Amino acid sequence: MMSFPPEENTSKTPRQMPRLSAAEKQCHYRARQDADPAKREAYLAKGRQKWREKREQGAYYKPISEQSEREKRAKRKAWRRAQEQSRCRKKQASGEEAF
């Protein structure tokens, strides 16, 4: 007796389609969201407004002009240290390239 392989169902049902990764789902969602320019502009405007409100509340950072003298000294000391480290890294990188 001959045995034939079962017939394959060629129709694509939701169960048979491959699952999307989280990144692919996010990409599709953003593409649908960005399809309407008016809605996209409203979404971006809302984000800008939230940012302004949080900045006014001081949630992000205080400009150096609004800081106390003590805060200014600490901030500038941190900037000097970061700049010194950056120069050191840059010097080491250029030294390694010479070899």
- Judging from the principal axes of the Cα atoms, what is the shape? elongated
Work out the helicity level: 55-70%
What is the averaged pLDDT score? 86
Total individual domains = 2
Please identify the structural class as seen in this structure: mainly alpha
Counting DSSP H or I runs of 4 or more residues, the number of helices is: 3
Largest sheet: none
Low-confidence runs: none
Q: In whole angstroms, how far apart are the ends? A: 75 Å
Q: Give me the strand/helix succession.
A: HHH
- Indicate the radius of gyration in whole angstroms: 28 Å
Explain the overall architecture:
This protein has two domains: 21-60; 64-99. The chain is mostly helical and 99 residues long. The model has no long low-confidence stretch (mean pLDDT 86). The longest helix has 30 residues, at 69-98. It has helices spanning 22-34, 37-56, 69-98. Helix content is 64%, strand content 0%.
Brief write-up:
The chain has helices spanning 22-34, 37-56, 69-98. It is mainly α. The chain has 2 domains: 21-60; 64-99.
Layout of SSEs?
Layout: H1 22-34, H2 37-56, H3 69-98
Keywords:
3 helices; mainly alpha; elongated; 99 residues; 0% strand
